[in-house]
């Protein structure tokens, strides 16, 4: 029967109890099943048994809690193949591997040293070739002295060895390198670099003609002027594609103007091409592909979408709290963040930068006197020693590219190609290619297309949400307490037909038929008054 409030009378006098009394009272009154039995068991073996059960129960409880918490912060990766009738065509950025035109440097005082190096290199190279092909008899040709009429040998063994050794040294060592190669300004790149109307001889998208006006101009210090098709600056007029294969997509015939190359600035000939999302800043020097002249290159692309989880499951960012290049025009990317970190460090330590981005209009380009400081920062950047906070973006689109190529143009096709170039009024290109050799030194053909319209979705999914974590925790608690699967309930005998003999030996008070009901109430033995 239940007690009324009138049946309760407070103690007439408060007693001062010790900590041991408090703990003993707690052990006797707590609803935790095992702790009271540790206190009131008369036999030592019973106390030990219940102590072990309680310890094991707590260990299991904390282990399970740890696993739940660990799974809450974990995530699984799910990969799906998404079918689509059409996909957005990526932006395509193309650059000539040569930054500045040779003919444009002639009238520039800043670039005189570079052009003199080019001229000296050519003269010394051909003089060396002539010397190396001189016959041994010519090298031993005697000289005549008109004063005494004697003929003397002009060459000794020592002199011949010195001459051969001198001729075997690199040409650049004998004439020296330019004292300094200037960093071109944005205006110099615009005025002296390759232009879109010269580079892009022919353009087709989905078998429809396009031209240089469909490209926007970007700049970087590695390649100078670059040109982007389907770039974000064209607003909502982005291109979509509904068919796959090399007959569709973007086709370009590119004229690299090989005669305009500057050897002191460029090691390779050809173009650099990068496919990227329209809203991401192009970085062809880091993630692009180099295409050689004299070849037709097929670039089959596959789209991959990546979705990452933010805190607390991951560390991705949408870029709102990060500092990255051209953030007023492009969305966040790891490369734009890392380059911003690199240039910020150079600007603060060296008072200059090496790239003429809009973000650094008020800061001068690095010159020769700042070379050592610049090289120190570059070394830190390339060794990944700069402390840059640049996590992966929460959403990212990448294009996996598979390339194949063939020699182009074919010998007999050259005449048809030459006629087409003339009809398109590209006269500079027409007169620069007098034969098939010239054509293969100057022309690049590129075809960029989708291999399939399906795209791959790589998505991180949380192993547990707040709701699922709560459900798991409640379910586990109910399973442990209601179903009697915890160690203490098993010892009390809810599933006690196997435990009855052992439990009875521990104390006559234990009734194997006794069980505890736990739902949303306190756990109390059935039939006991509150």
UniProtKB/TrEMBL annotation:
Q: Where is the composition biased (Polar residues)?
A: 145-165
Alphabetical keyword list: Ion channel, Ion transport, Membrane, Sodium, Sodium channel, Sodium transport, Transmembrane, Transmembrane helix, Transport
Cell compartments where the protein resides = Membrane
Q: Where is this region: Disordered?
A: 128-187
This protein's GO CC annotations: plasma membrane
Q: Which GO terms describe its molecular function?
A: ligand-gated sodium channel activity
> What's the protein's topology in the membrane?
Multi-pass membrane protein
**Parts of the chain that traverse the membrane:** 48-66
- Matching PANTHER family: AMILORIDE-SENSITIVE SODIUM CHANNEL-RELATED, PICKPOCKET 17, ISOFORM A
Q: Which family does the record assign?
A: Belongs to the amiloride-sensitive sodium channel (TC 1.A.6) family.
Q: What is the name of this protein?
A: Putative amiloride-sensitive sodium channel subunit alpha
Question: Which source organism?
Answer: Stichopus japonicus
């Amino acid at each position: 029967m239940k007690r009324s409030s009138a049946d309760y009378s407070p103690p007439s006098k408060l007693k001062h109890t010790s900590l041991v009394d408090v703990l003993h009272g707690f052990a006797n009154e707590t609803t935790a099943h095992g702790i009271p039995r540790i206190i009131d068991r008369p036999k030592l073996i019973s106390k030990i048994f219940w102590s072990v059960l309680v310890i094991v129960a707590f260990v299991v409880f904390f282990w399970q809690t740890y696993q739940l918490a660990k799974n809450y912060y974990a995530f699984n990766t799910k990969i799906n193949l998404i079918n689509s009738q059409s996909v957005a065509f990526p932006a395509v950025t193309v650059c000539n591997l040569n930054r500045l035109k040779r003919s444009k440097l002639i009238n520039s005082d800043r670039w005189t040293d570079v052009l003199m190096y080019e001229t000296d290199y050519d003269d010394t190279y051909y003089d060396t070739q002539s010397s190396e092909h001189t016959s041994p008899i010519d090298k031993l040709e005697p000289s005549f002295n008109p004063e005494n009429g004697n003929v003397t040998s002009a060459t000794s063994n020592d002199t011949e060895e010195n001459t051969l050794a001198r001729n075997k040294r690199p040409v650049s060592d004998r004439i020296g390198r330019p004292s300094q190669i200037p960093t071109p300004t944005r205006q110099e790149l615009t005025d002296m670099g390759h232009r879109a109307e010269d580079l892009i001889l022919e353009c087709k998208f989905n078998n429809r003609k396009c031209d240089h006006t469909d490209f926007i101009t970007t700049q970087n210090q590695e390649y100078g002027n670059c040109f982007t098709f389907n770039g974000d600056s064209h607003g909502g007029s982005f291109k979509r594609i509904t068919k796959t294969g090399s007959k569709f997509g973007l086709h370009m015939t590119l004229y690299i103007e090989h005669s305009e190359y500057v050897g002191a600035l460029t090691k390779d000939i050809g173009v650099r091409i990068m496919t990227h999302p329209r809203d991401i800043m192009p970085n062809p020097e880091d993630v692009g592909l180099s295409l050689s002249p004299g070849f037709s290159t097929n670039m089959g692309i596959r789209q991959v979408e990546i979705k990452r989880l933010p805190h607390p499951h991951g560390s991705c960012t949408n870029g709102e709290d990060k500092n990255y290049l051209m953030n007023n025009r492009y969305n966040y990317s790891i490369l734009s963040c890392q380059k911003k970190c690199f240039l910020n460090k150079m600007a603060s330590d060296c008072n200059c930068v090496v790239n003429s981005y809009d973000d650094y209009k008020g800061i001068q380009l690095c010159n020769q006197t700042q070379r050592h400081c610049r090289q120190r920062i570059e070394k830190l950047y390339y060794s990944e020693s700069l402390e840059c906070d640049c996590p992966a973006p929460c959403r990212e689109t990448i294009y996996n590219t598979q390339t194949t190529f063939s020699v182009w143009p074919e010998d007999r096709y050259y005449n048809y190609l030459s006629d087409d170039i003339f009809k398109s009024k590209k006269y500079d290109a027409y007169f620069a290619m007098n034969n098939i050799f010239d054509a293969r030194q100057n022309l690049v053909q590129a075809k960029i297309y989708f291999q399939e319209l399906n795209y791959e979705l790589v998505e991180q999914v949380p192993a547990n949400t707040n709701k699922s974590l709560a459900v798991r925790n409640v379910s586990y608690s109910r399973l442990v307490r209601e179903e009697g699967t915890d160690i203490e309930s098993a010892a009390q005998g809810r599933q006690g037909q196997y435990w009855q003999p052992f439990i009875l030996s521990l104390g006559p008070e234990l009734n194997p038929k006794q069980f505890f009901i736990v739902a949303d109430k306190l756990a109390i033995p059935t039939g006991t008054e509150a």
